Amino acid sequence: MPVVPAAAAVALALVPWPSRVTPGAGAFTLAPSTVIVADAALSEVADGFARRVQPATGFAYVVRSGATPKPGSVIEFRVDASLATTLGAEGYRLEVTPHRVTVHAAAAAGAFYATQTMRQLLPNAIERGALVKGVAWTMPAVSIEDTPRFSWRGAHLDVSRHFMPKEFVKRYIDLMALHKLNRFHWHLTDDQGWRIEIMKYPKLTSVGAWRTGTLVGDLHTDTAKRMYDNVPHGGFYTQDDIREVVAYAAERFVTVVPEIEMPGHAQAAIAAYPELGNVKRPLSVLRIWGEGEDVLNASPATVAFMQDVLAEVIALFPSPWIHVGGDEVQKGPWKESAAMQAQIKQLGLSGEHELQSWFIRQMDGWLTQHGRRMIGWDEILEGGLAPNATVMSWRGDDGAIAAANAGHDAVLTPNHHTYFDYYQSKDRAGEPHAIGGFLPLDTVYTWDPIPKAIAPDKVSRILGVQAQVWTEYIADGRAVEYMAFPRFAALSEVAWTPASGRDLAKFRARMAVHAERLRVLDVNMRPLEQSVVP
Ligand code: ACM
């Protein structure tokens, strides 16, 4: 029995699958004479659709305002404020009939998601960047009502372990938008490289963005067995680059959530400014994986330094959330530091866990004062959660359960379902070398994300879900795409589609068709394998 049905059997290969889909009869054909008309609030989105279809079709549409012309071939974008209460700002209604395509949305975001659906209704060749002749640009007649399950539909990218040029970052954001994902978590700093220009502290990038080489193969416990490529690696984004990416993302209704890691995973910063550390010897930007040899000290001067960094970060990123990391903070350097032991005593804290919590609270208070919300990995629960913190639960679901039940917001990022740096097959020899783990497509798809242990009145504290792409063994954009796809597509349905609308066999059938679209977009997707029943 074939595992993947023939592509032709799937007429509507939409990913993520919408809330409600009613197929109609016939098809709409995009023609040079088609008129696109939009209400003012949706005209930019309509224009975005026109620009997207222009290269392949060669049709140069100018979006009109005002009343709908009749008769003729028309695509119209209309505001329907009543949808705000039924489908929300990100929801939309899309009617495709042989003569007319109508989009109704309460806000531009919803209309944008309608255009992503329209794009997927058109032939794959619409994704080409150059004129394609001999294609009938049809959309099958259909009636769709759609709204996302979760407001946080994230994708993370680690650009510290391997620097990713801004062109790839923009492509990643494009691929997010195609799948209706809306939070780009940009992991900008870590032990192995600091990637964001900070005007006040230039050595963060002149020193902290560069390492002398990179570990090759496994991180052997026996240091004598470790191998290095000895190839200098680095790079960073200027503040202009950041503004460009943030604006690019905003046009695609993606919020960029920056992460500045503290107080752990900060060896690149300590290499640049040794006074931020605890050990009294020079450290380099780390060349191996795992945790660095030191963490930030928690002195008032270091707290002020990191708040200076955050001041430049909030000027660049309009995101309501700013991520401060907080994970895997080794306590050894603080245990051995007379200054940190004195500070623990002076603050009346019980030990290093409470000192970490104290440090994170300094950032939470500062961000709250500046009108932003702090978000951190689930270790920020240890030693007491800061008052306004949102938690990303990565070590399983427990962090989200504890946070939500305590009345805090949480995002589900558990390694068991969302770490896309894990192997996609048990046949490791047939895969690119990865950090470990095993997370096949079907396991991602069939994930029921809301943990049962969250009290029913606290479930609304779960903002959503997010994919993680850590890049220890992922050296460039092509390699990111191999690890992200097809799992990204599965995660997009967990994030968007109502639980009642999810069906693994149907997803796989649609995915076989959607894969062709990704191929036209030159996505280096891992081929779909036989279904691995989780
Ligand atoms: C993490 O994987 N350390 C958040």
Features:
6-stranded mixed β-sheet; alpha/beta; single chain; 8-stranded parallel β-barrel; 2 domains; 534 residues; Chitobiase, domain 2; TIM Barrel
Task: Give a short synopsis of this structure.
By secondary structure, this protein is α/β, with parallel strands linked by helices. The chain contains 17 helices and 20 strands. It has 2 domains: 6-146, 2-Layer Sandwich (Chitobiase, domain 2); 152-496, TIM Barrel (Alpha-Beta Barrel).
Structure commentary:
There is one protein chain. The chain folds into 2 domains: 6-146, 2-Layer Sandwich (Chitobiase, domain 2), CATH 3.30.379; 152-496, Alpha-Beta Barrel (TIM Barrel). It has helices at 43-57, 83-86, 108-121, 166-178, 203-206, 239-251, 267-272, 300-316, 332-335, 338-347, 352-369, 398-405, 415-418, 441-445, 477-484, 487-496, 504-520; strands at residues 20-29, 35-38, 74-79, 92-96, 100-105, 138-146, 152-158, 183-187, 189-190, 193-194, 210-211, 215-216, 227-228, 233-234, 255-262, 321-325, 373-377, 390-393, 410-412, 462-467. The protein contains 17 helices and 20 strands. With 534 residues, it is of the alpha/beta class. Acetamide (ACM) is lined by residues 327-328, 377, 394.
